[in-house]
Amino acid sequence: MDKLLEVKDLVVKFALRTGTLTALNGINFSLLPGERMGLVGESGAGKSVAGFSIINLISKPGFIAGGEVIFEGEDISKYNFEQMRSIRGNKISMIFQDPMMTLNPVLTIGTQMTETLLAHKQMSKEEATEIAIECLKKVYIPSPETRLKQYPHEFSGGMRQRIVIAISLLTTPKLIIADEPTTALDVTIQAEIMDLLLELCIKEKMGLILITHDLGVVSQTTQKIAVMYAGRIVEKGKTLDIITNPKHPYTQGLIKALPQTHKKGEKLYQIPGIMPNLNQIPSGCPFHPRCTFKKDICSQIEPSLKSVDKGEVACHLYA
Amino acid sequence: MFAFIVRRFLQAVFVMLVISLIGFSIQHQIGDPVRDLVGISVSKKEREALREKLGLNDPFFIQYGRFLKKALHGDLGRSFFYKKPAVDVILSKAPATLELVFVTSILVIVFSIPLGIYCAIFPKKFLSRLIMGASVVGVSIPVFLTAIMLIYIFSVKLGVMPSFGRGELVHIGGYWYSGLFTWDGLKHLVMPSIALTSIMLPLFVRLIRAEMMEVLESEYIRFAWAKGLKPKRIWFVHAFKNTLLPVITVGGVQLGTLIAFTILTESVFQWQGLGFLFVEAVERADTTLLVSYLIFVGFVFVLINTLVDIIYGLVNPMVRITGKK
């Protein structure tokens, strides 16, 4: 099967006054049509930057400095603004983190839904409204006809995230990039939203890139995982393999730190240290100062991704 | 929405009561109506009798009550200089100021919105930097200096613009003589309104720019880009509508300020409006007129603010439905 998306050696930099920071240091991953992938890592690992750079929507001083984003056979990272606009919200939709902030407070839900359709398709307002109602039904919003006339503040957080998901469905995209879609929600709502997202991805045969720090969520939703650290992918593989048999010490630490895996009465595990700032990434393997298995070579040479068993790992332990 | 309007109205009434109380206290403390009435040639005994007869020896709040009752009937006392009711004097001068403020407001709105939006969308472009630089110069030059420079260049040197007065007026009805309907009247309006605009415009350009830039950074704008909307729609529908809310609030207050503080401009251009009247009243110690001016300006302020709040309510759906912020 042809790949839906292929990210090749993608480099993203931020031009700051003090110098240029490298936020993504040549990452590679690919996605088949309808496939679901998790991008996992701590805050600051570059997962969101990776997600946003696919549709070239990195916030301001950031820019794509190299590499390719091949979507349906074309390198969309070289697209001009108008070409990219026709992809955004049309073939590739995004779901943002905080539904309280993503909807415009002064426009009705109806306006915010139909405008997306009208920006991409030749259709009348009535037809667009029809589709909007359809999509609200798909995310189980009751009485969608009246809801369309309401403003965001008349909905709860969970409802708003459903609406955001409905907006992402409008144009029946090929790929949805969900940036921490449940982080800002109540724990009880989180599962609901994830179930809904999973159900819709399967039903509509959409690809999904799920950006999250929650390995629990990823394990239930995705087929494969890429673990990110300091702007690099340090481990890739099938979800089940990574969850049950993590290779990279960082991934092992992440899984050990899950509350679900911890025994009653014991202290919760923490990976020692913190993610380095982008302007002071250690030499060699960026994880070595926090790694419990570090060897001399780790501080000197940066390991590259190599096939180990069924997955890929960037670690000297497997050299 | 109805409850919201009623509540705003009650607040407005309360504020007016406070203003009238302050106004009356001033009059009570520094004005002597008996002196205004009879001059200095009347004996002390006769003055006392007159005071008793006019009720000037009554307790403060009884007198205030009487003042309020008269004020509600549109009687704020007589100006001793004009020998006319103070309200009549103010109403006859108000149209001049209102017309000046009206033209200035239009100039400010017409120019500040496009300039502000442009500077917010393209903050790094040369033209934006130029506008921002010019706006600093604009706010820094005092209005009377701008006015004098305008007169020097266009009236004295070039001789193309009238330097003072309102020019040819048309009687509209009541106290209203308008300069908006004759060529000469409009010509007289140009320089005073430009002088006033020079102060207000930079303020609004900067305000709109700052608010809009903040909005453009928000998550919902980023989401709008992610939806693939056209830039024009994002700027003018998504961003500008959110920019409007704070701008309306500040704008309303500034409009009141404009009416109250046309004093400098009116003095330079000998514009026969309220500001000019106020300066005259101060010079002549015309207490009744001063207090009436204070109450009138206070009333205009309260009126504008109430209207602004209601308009704000119409623009902001959160106020519209729940009746509160």
Average of per-residue pLDDT values of chain B: 85
Name of the top-level CATH class of the largest domain in chain B: Mainly Alpha
Largest sheet of chain B: 2 strands, antiparallel
Tell me the fraction of residues in β-strands of chain B, as a range: under 5%
Give a quick account of the main beta sheet of chain A: strands, pairing sense, barrel closure.
Answer: 8 strands, mixed
Give the CA-CA distance, first to last residue of chain A.
Answer: 32 Å
**Inertia-based shape of chain A:** globular
What's the CATH class label of chain A? Alpha Beta
Fraction in helix of chain B: over 70%
Oligomeric status:
heterodimer
Structure report:
The complex is a heterodimer of chains A (319) and B (325). Chain A has 319 residues and is an alpha/beta fold. Chain A has a single domain, classed as P-loop containing nucleotide triphosphate hydrolases (Rossmann fold). Helices cover 32% and strands 24% of the residues of chain A. Chain A contains eleven helices and twelve strands. In chain A, strand 7 (175-179), helix 8 and strand 8 (207-212) form a beta-alpha-beta unit. Chain A is globular. Helices cover 76% and strands 3% of the residues of chain B. Chain B has 14 helices and four strands. In chain B, the strands form two sheets. In chain B, strands 1-2 form a two-stranded antiparallel sheet. In chain B, helix 9 packs antiparallel against helix 10 (231-260). The longest helix of chain B has 36 residues, at 86-121.
Topology:
The complex is a heterodimer of chains A (319) and B (325).
Chain A: E1 5-16, E2 19-31, E3 36-40, H1 47-54, E4 62-71, E5 74-75, H2 81-87, E6 92-95, H3 99-102, H4 109-120, H5 125-138, H6 144-147, H7 157-169, E7 175-179, H8 187-204, E8 207-212, H9 215-221, E9 224-229, E10 232-238, H10 239-244, H11 249-256, E11 306-308, E12 311-313
Parallel strand pairs in A: 3-8, 3-9, 6-7, 7-8
Antiparallel strand pairs in A: 1-2, 1-4, 4-5, 9-10, 10-12, 11-12
Helix pairs in contact in A: 4-5, 5-7, 7-8
Chain B: H1 2-30, H2 33-38, H3 44-54, H4 60-72, E1 78-79, E2 84-85, H5 86-121, H6 126-140, H7 143-157, E3 170-173, E4 176-178, H8 183-216, H9 219-226, H10 231-260, H11 263-268, H12 274-283, H13 287-315, H14 317-322
Antiparallel strand pairs in B: 1-2, 3-4
Helix pairs in contact in B: 1-4, 1-13, 5-6, 5-8, 5-10, 5-13, 6-8, 7-8, 8-10, 9-10, 10-13, 12-13
